[in-house]
Design goal:
Distance between the termini: 50 Å
Strand order of the largest sheet: 1-2
Helix content: 55-70%
Number of helices: 11
Mean pLDDT: 85
Number of strands: 2
Radius of gyration: 22 Å
Strand content: under 5%
Largest sheet: 2 strands, antiparallel
Order of helices and strands: HHEEHHHHHHHHH
Length: 217
Amino acid sequence: MRLAELSRTTGVPPATIKWYLREGLLPKGEATARNQAQYDDAHVRRLRLIRALVEIGGMTTQEARNILAVVDDPNASIDQVVGAAHGALARVPDSDSDATTLAQVDHFLASRGWKVMPGSPARAELAGIVRAMAQFTPGYDHSDLALAAGLAPYADAVDQLAAAEVEELPRDVPRDVLVEQVVLGTVLAERLIGSLRRLAQESAFLTRYVAPSDTNR
């Protein structure tokens, strides 16, 4: 298919496709003439993956490029693919969290029996969140583990979910399909969980604080 047909099939404007090509996110098509190329189903799948990462996942071009580099590496293990996705999703504080906060997080992770690499971006991100929460908790003793323990309800909610996500990964499929599923499942589920939580929270607030008649206006 020509670029125009690729655009119609995927819903991605031609200018955006050309930009993805220039940025190296989308492999070049097979040249057929000067300034002309043919594209195939692999390009359709890649474009849909790029859109999921950038438009839905909120990735920057560089973050998407980092993930796709691992996706395209035939020697990359699944845990490396997951690590690349987690690294792009994590919002690690600019300043390093102090040793006490990291100790709180590590103590909590150990209490859950979760296996986490010391360099996990999510570990550093969680430490930054705990530190920020502590700063807004009156009378909080920074050496206390109580705040980290308050994470338990959230951990309970995602523990079974994460196990189910891994268990439901397709088996006996080509590696490229599995890798795409891992990346999409990691990135899109992150946004899905956030959206569902916000909707549930909105409903809870409306139920508790807003009169039924006001919600119908």
